[in-house]
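User: I'm new to structure prediction. If I give you an amino acid sequence, what do you actually give back? Let's try with this one:
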Amino acid sequence: MILRRRMMMILQIVGIYAFYFFSIVEGQCVVESHRCGFPFSSSPSSNSSLPRHYSCQPGNGLHFCYSQVGERSVYGVCNGGCFQEDGVTPIIFEEDDAMAFFCKTAASPCQFPFIWNGATYNSCTRDGSEFLWCALEVD
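Assistant: Good question. You get back a string of structure tokens that encode the predicted 3D arrangement of the chain. For your 139 residues, that looks like this:
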């Protein structure tokens, strides 16, 4: 019985990796989910005079937060774990709040084609970054 459960878990993990691999190969990439870091300031710089936020911040009809990815800070749309039970009001987290673990940026589909620095992209790129990235909105 235990062996059967382990085999099922392994098959599920392999399936997830296969889905991820084939979606990238086919050109369907997304900006993956990352844990929001609280508190954060409105700019990822180390300017300590900027206000620090303990909840996702509104903008363009959505709520956003910063996440740390390697040496970079990234800005993303907050997922459902960032809101109170009404699904609308952002939770205000305390410093080192264990519940902040569930507040993440939502995985977002890429929008193609997009133009960056005068070049047109039809797939994710590493240009200007060590990570693959893409546009989430196009003009």
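You can read the tokens as a compact description of the fold. Here is one thing that stands out. The radius of gyration is 18 Å.
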